[in-house]
Write a structure and sequence with these properties.
It comes from candidate division MSBL1 archaeon SCGC-AAA259J03. Its cofactor is Zn(2+). The protein is of the alpha/beta class. It has nine helices and six strands, in the order αβαβαβαβαααββαα. The strands form two sheets. A four-stranded parallel β-sheet has the order 2-1-3-4, sandwiched between helices. It has a two-stranded parallel sheet with strand order 5-6. Bound molecules: zinc ion.
Length: 270
């Protein structure tokens, strides 16, 4: 939470303030990341910091409410058992998303954006669909999907865990927690040839996504805990990625605001 932005966040508001905000704009953004080791050089809250920062910039431009970031996320099996990582079970995470949306809707919010900045994009659609069956309107963008073309323009490598992209975001968003003196990365052969799976931010055509296969646990195969090339990360690259994500999200929210004024939502209830 950046200084001067405190009032964008639900947890810092009093009840009458929340009522007022819902009357002005009833879109709420739930930023989600994780508590997870990010190599030797990035903080464990890295993904949550990305989500909160980007959400804050979008809320500032659109008037959307920011729901408290839960910090914890769920993880693919390859992340488990690494020092610094605290994973939620998939069901816990999915239920958390459902409960938060249901709870916030009781306070007058009708449209929800779940902004994901962690490798759990596979875990969120089941929550979205469960909420859809109950009549809630939810959109759930993931950072490397909405900024994919920008990633390819700005970065030399794909979005890899604690690699060039995340290091760039860390240097731009939370430089005070990054130590580039110990930034080391590595590339490892996957369990099968890499041609079968698309990496995050990669083009999926003729391949399956990275989360549709079980991979070797990172604590067993990585020496430094980061994949790819963290030394290539810069704050300037981070700024460009954040800018692209914010533009995408602001355009999305502006359309929702225009088509569905406060008190209304798309007719999606079954
Ligand atoms: Zn990360």
């Amino acid at each position: 939470m950046k200084e001067g932005k405190e009032k964008l966040w639900w947890q810092n508001l009093r009840r009458p303030e929340i009522e007022e905000r819902a009357e002005e704009c009833d879109i709420a953004i739930l930023p989600v990341g994780a508590v997870e080791q990010h190599g030797q050089h990035l903080p464990t809250g890295e993904d949550s910091f990305h989500a909160m920062d980007i959400a804050e910039r979008v809320a500032e431009k659109t008037g959307a409410m920011l729901l408290p970031c839960p910090w914890y996320g769920t993880h693919p099996s390859m992340h488990l058992k690494y020092t610094g990582t605290i994973p939620l079970r998939f069901e816990t995470f999915k239920n958390l998303l459902v409960d938060v949306v249901e709870g916030a809707s009781e306070s007058g919010f009708n449209k929800f954006v779940i902004l994901n900045c962690h490798g759990q994009e596979w875990a969120i659609p089941p929550a979205v669909q469960e909420l859809g069956r109950k009549g809630y309107f939810v959109v759930a963008p993931t950072l490397w999907e909405i900024a994919k073309s920008k990633f390819r323009e700005v970065l030399d490598t794909y979005f890899m865990h604690a690699g060039e992209a995340e290091t760039s975001l860390g240097l731009y968003i939370v430089p005070e927690y990054v130590d580039m003196d110990v930034a080391e990365g590595e590339e490892k052969e996957a369990v099968l040839d890499g041609k079968w799976f698309a990496k995050p931010s990669d083009v999926i055509e003729d391949r399956i996504p990275w989360f549709a296969v079980t991979l070797t646990p990172e604590y067993k195969e990585l020496e430094f805990g980061s994949k790819g090339f963290p030394k290539e990360g810069t704050a300037e690259k981070g700024e460009k990625i954040v800018g692209a994500a914010v533009d995408w999200l602001v355009e999305l929210l502006e359309e929702i605001k225009e088509k569905y004024p406060p008190g209304t939502k798309p007719d999606i209830a079954p």
